[in-house]
Specification:
Blueprint: H1 7-10, E1 15-17, E2 20-26, H2 32-45, E3 49-55, E4 62-66, H3 67-74, E5 83-87, H4 88-96, H5 104-108
Parallel strand pairs: 2-3
Antiparallel strand pairs: 1-2, 3-4, 4-5
Length: about 110
């Protein structure tokens, strides 16, 4: 994984890992909807799936991906264009193990 150090000047996501273009935010005032639009636009530029990772101080990291991208990895269908928010540990699993098992304990941690 390598951070995109010229992203402010040239645009683009913070980093790309596999099929994911990742935007990372750590701010006290949450603007998740605005950040998500930015993540989607930047992912489209590099033909990747968008992922937003964010948090406030002293709060846990959260990860947002589209429901379609999440379900595509684990089976099922999505009827609407929805987003899924998961813990950072689940987000890391999405990046590192796209063929995760259907372990019920994994589902409980969402």
């Amino acid at each position: 994984m390598e951070r995109n150090l010229v992203q402010t000047r040239e645009g683009g996501s913070d980093t790309v890992v596999g099929d994911w273009a990742i935007e990372v935010k750590r701010q006290e005032t949450l603007s998740v909807a605005v950040w998500w639009v930015q993540a989607v636009q930047q992912a489209k530029r590099v033909n990747k799936k968008p992922m937003l990772i964010y948090r406030k101080s002293r709060m846990p990291w959260r990860v947002i991906v589209t429901a379609q991208d999440f379900i595509a990895l684990y089976g099922g269908t999505v009827m609407f264009d929805e987003l899924i928010e998961v813990s950072l540990s689940m987000g890391i699993r999405l990046l590192s193990d796209p063929q995760m098992t259907q372990d019920p304990q994994v589902k409980a941690n969402l």
